[in-house]
Design brief:
With about 625 residues, the chain is an alpha/beta fold. It is built from 24 helices and twelve strands. The strands form two sheets. A six-stranded parallel sheet has the order 3-2-1-4-5-6. Strands 9-8-7-10-11-12 form a six-stranded parallel sheet, with helices on both faces. Helix 17 crosses helix 22. The C terminus is likely disordered.
Amino acid sequence: MRIGLLTDGGYPYATGESRLWCDRLVRGLAQHEFDLFALSRSAEQEAQGWVQLPEQVSRVRTAPLWTADEDVLGTHAPKGLLARMVTGGGGRSYGRRERQRFAAHFTALATSVCAGGPASGEDDTAGAGESAVGGASGGAGFGGRSEEGRTGSSAAGVADAQFTEGLYGLAELAREHGGLPAALRSETAVRVLEAACRAPGTGRTVQSATVPDFLAFARELDRVLRPLSLDWYDEESLGAVDLCHATSGGAAALPGLLAKRFFGVPLLVTEHGVQLRAHYLSATGTPLSAPVRALLANFHGRLATEVYRQAALITPGNTHARRWQERCGAEREKLRTVHPGMESGRFTALGESGDSGPDDTLVWVGRIEPAKDLIALLHAFAEVRKAEPDTRLRIIGAPAQGPEGATYLAHCRALAAQLFPDEATDAHAVGDNPVSFEDIGGAEVPDLSEAYAAGGVVVLSSVVEGFPISLVEAMFCGRATVSTDVGAVVEVIGGTGLVVPPRNPRALADACLALLRDPERRARLGAAARARALELFTVEQNLAAFRGIYLELISHAPVRREADEVNADGGPRPFATPPEAHVLGPWTASDPARPGAPGRTPSWAAGSRPVCAGARGAGGGDV
């Protein structure tokens, strides 16, 4: 089958999130054909180029989300994109009717976003916009947990309907008459936003927005809605695929929403880390004002709700992500946890050696950044040294990109020097600090396997974590672990390691001492951890899961092109002629859930089989 793989800031670029997982998926499912539709996040990412793509990738379409204005867009946009995104189709600007349509659809969208305050009246002016706990629950569709009876439920339903009306109306306008950036930054858009924010029932944070806030929100909204203006929505692009697989929510899923809207293509959404949660975590670190953060939080919440509503299936990477998706409105029947697959081969020699590691060394491996809370780890190690003076701590990894990572590494080095002055055995010896900061690839740590072999206990001290990759790697190596209870840590470790509360150096130190003093216990936990990791977190189990999911979804949404009724050898393709094609039934009616969508006659319903004309399977609504 033909898969449309939708990515945001990752594959096929050489840098970015989920690129390794996407590459393993595409290479591992070689029986399928993949079309890549990729959104880039920065000029630097584009400059570093693509990874080498396998033969089953038949086409790649890219578009930037990072351009700030039309001039930059004209410099960096793919050929043929500029005319559609700036001046509109055919090189002309919007006429009077198009401007009226834009105003009507944008008003519906803005009204739903600004009406983000929950029925309970909670309003967090300090958080990331009506807050993830309070305002986002009503405005972002968190299952209505703050609503007051039928009134709140009805209000949430009206706001959801307004959001979908506005979103798809803008998409249809962009498809027919060109891009939206100029209109989204126009005076009309600012006036619509001002009226929506001043309307009765909006939260206090939103009502306090000023003209600079409206301009800033319009600018951010232009970037988020950039996929609506792309020229991907025709019979030769997304209309030609059998299944859209979005590798994250948010902007990456927008083309999938439109492919389903315009062509009835089923949508599969995979999230290893929930985009809405990532937005909430990053919002407070931006220079945006509180009203702008509030509006963006409400928009992203409503977008997440719509993505989950339209997806045929949602595959969270862990239970932690699954809980977020449920609170954002995802139906439990659509959720199926599929852990991200990781390569285990390079850890086989260490994992099967039976060596539990040195008794006097703790090791931390990862990317050095504030979320990893190495400060707490250093204070915990100070307690460990008081009980076991010969213990060492090896911190192995590079700082996160950007000035924040380098600054945090410098702060950690300074704290280590303050807590552990260089020690010397006598007056003539050179002192040695028990804490070392090392990079992978050097003489002492040539590769990742050697990093985990360096310690008897692997420590994870994070305060924020999604799927803990370094923890799974330590499990593949057969190492005992001490971790903080954040993200999906408990789900991953499953009783094969020690877990302590985050930001608690005393508890972290006690757990480390317990394992350092008991080699037999370390060996038992390490063996159990390796067995668990090989059962749940390998590339093979991930590929097997998606192989079955692809077949399951396409069996309910038959191929729609006559050329695809047979394979390369002339034999029939699986599911090209489903059982429904031979039985009279109510599925011959058009889909009421998508009024105005163009009618399609599946390939199996053409010719001498007039029954079932118009059926689109589970991806389009009828079964």
